[in-house]
Each structure stands twice: as C-alpha cells, then as structure tokens.
Amino acid sequence: MRNPYDVLGVPKGASEADIKRAFRKLAKAYHPDRNKDDARAKDRFAEANSAYEILGDAGKRAQFDRGEIDAEGKPRATGFEGFSGFGGGRANSFDFEGMARSRGGGGGIGEDIFSHLFGEAFRAGGAGPGGPGGFQRGGPGGAHAKGDDVQAELSVTLEQVGAEEKLRLALPTGREVDVVIPRGVVDGQTIRLRGLGHPAGLRGEPGDALLTIRVLPHPRFKQEGTDLRTSVEVPLEDAVLGGSIRVPTLTGAVEMRMPPMTSSGRTFRLRGKGLPKKDGTRGDLLATTAIVLPEADAALSEYARSKRAAKAE
C-alpha cells in the first residue's frame, strides 16, 4: 500500500481536522454506492479507508511516523538499517558481540539475536517457528490473540434510515458485506460488526469492523432522535378559516386537519411518521406552520389599514 499521507493527499504535519476532511472528500467521491460499475473507485475507497485507519488514530499515526508500523499497520522489524549479513558489513543499531557477551557468551550470535527479537512471538509449548503452531501473530498466547479492528464510514439518507434498507459496504480489508441500517441510529453513531476486522493468524479471533453511520443532511427534514421536524407552508385563508393541508413525510404527503385561526409557528405532531425505534415503533413528525401571505390582495390591504387606523384612535 502507498504511504497513507500520499493516499489522502495531506502533508505529514497535517492536523486531525485536515486529515478527516481529506478522507471524507475521498470517501464521498469513491463511495461504492456512487460508483457501482467502477472497480478502480472501489479500490481507491478501500485504500482511503486503510490510510485513514492509520492517520485517523493518533496512536497508530505516531507509530507510523516513527517507522514502527508500515502503511498497512503491520509492525516493522526495526534496528537492521545498514545490516548486510553476518559475513560482511556492520549493523547500525545492534552490537551483536556485545549482546552475546551480555548473555554470558552461551550459544551463537545468531541464536541470541533471534531469541531477543522474536522469543516472545513464538507460542510457549509450541517451541520455535518449526514447532507445532509455529509463529503466531499477537505475542504470547498468539493462538488466542485477536486481530486488529478496522474503521469504516457509511453515509445514508433519511429515506434509507426510515426504510431500514440493506446496503452493501466495502470494508478496508477488501471484503464487501451487506449492512442493515439499525433502528434508532443517529448521525455519528458507531456500531460494531464482530469478526469483520483483520485476521489474527491461523487460529486467532479476527478483529471487528467499527462502522460509523453518517446521516446525510436532508433538504426538508431535520432529525431529532427518531423524530423528524419540518416546516409546512400554509395559505392565509387556510390559517384563518382552518381546513385540510398536505404535510410531506418520508413516504409521501399526508392530509392534516388544521383548526381555524392558526398562527404561524404553531407545531403539530403527526404520530408514527418519524424514524424506526429500537422497539419496532416509529417516532413522530413535528410540522411547524409558516403562513404565506398573498402577493397582492386589495381587500386584505384595506382591512389591514382599517385595523391600523382603529388602533391609532
């Protein structure tokens, strides 16, 4: 994988906000839902997710900057810079002979180095890399170690939340899964998809996928938990005389009876017209009236002038 800074197009000294902004821009541009027939876009999306997994985590970013992990988040074997083998050259970061002396001189130098570097990586009871089980990822007890978690984002519309749609998601691991939008979800909520993270070796438990839901802004509705809020225009004559008005919902307009002399800014509750709740019921739609005056009405203007004149007396 490429350098994550290059993938996101940010300098090494970029702030957390700049990194998040760059990732969201790429995720939006290459999201599989917008590029269903473009395999290259899926690859770019996965690459951006992997890069953000490193740079979006302060701890992993620091490890990467120090050269402790590579662009895929895997540990690097450090300290061998300049090493050209036991027969020639000299290692920059290790004093092989000094290390052997510090351990009492027993055994060969090569044996001592590998014991120092990798001793904790082999399972106890499994002997060395050639023994049963062999080399395990994750240190002591590697057979039971858990793989790394991955992070991903899923952008959804209010209509998709309301319909509890099933969406296909490309994870940073390259795997595609179907995700059902959970009931009661709100913008920024993170859900855990167990076992969909990085693997942990031969018999280890895989990590999880941490999926953050981003609810896209809607031109008409505002989400308040499982309730929705909207504004509905009301002609002056209906506000004065009362009557039936049409109120938009996520699934189409419905009729609502409005009483006479309804002022602008009054809120009506349409029960069950909101978003799904965890218990299977639905939230409500809060519709606030906005009275619309006619552009030109001589009789209305005359009435207003007479009322003003009466107050002035």
Please characterize this protein's 3D structure.
The protein has 313 residues and is of the alpha+beta class. Among the domains are: 148-217, Sandwich (HSP40/DNAj peptide-binding domain), CATH 2.60.260; 222-298, Urease metallochaperone UreE, N-terminal domain (HSP40/DNAj peptide-binding domain), CATH 2.60.260. The protein has nine helices and eleven strands. A four-stranded mixed beta sheet has the order 6-7-11-10. The protein has a three-stranded mixed beta sheet with strand order 1-5-4. A hairpin with a 2-residue loop joins strand 6 and strand 7 (227-235). Helix 5 (96-102) crosses helix 6. The protein is elongated, with a radius of gyration of 31 Å. Mean pLDDT is 79; it is low at 78-143.
Task: Report the CATH topology name of one domain.
Answer: HSP40/DNAj peptide-binding domain
- End-to-end span in angstroms? 82 Å
Low-confidence stretches: 78-143
CATH superfamily of one domain: Urease metallochaperone UreE, N-terminal domain
Spatial order of the strands forming the largest sheet: 6-7-11-10
Based on CA atoms alone, the radius of gyration comes out at: 31 Å
Shape: elongated
Overall SS class: alpha+beta
How many strands, what sense, and barrel or not for the largest sheet?
Answer: 4 strands, mixed
The CATH architecture of one domain: Sandwich
Keywords: Chaperone
InterPro entries: DnaJ_C (IPR002939), DnaJ_domain (IPR001623), DnaJ_domain_CS (IPR018253), HSP40/DnaJ_pept-bd (IPR008971), J_dom_sf (IPR036869)
Organism: Methylobacterium oxalidis
Pfam families: DnaJ, DnaJ_C
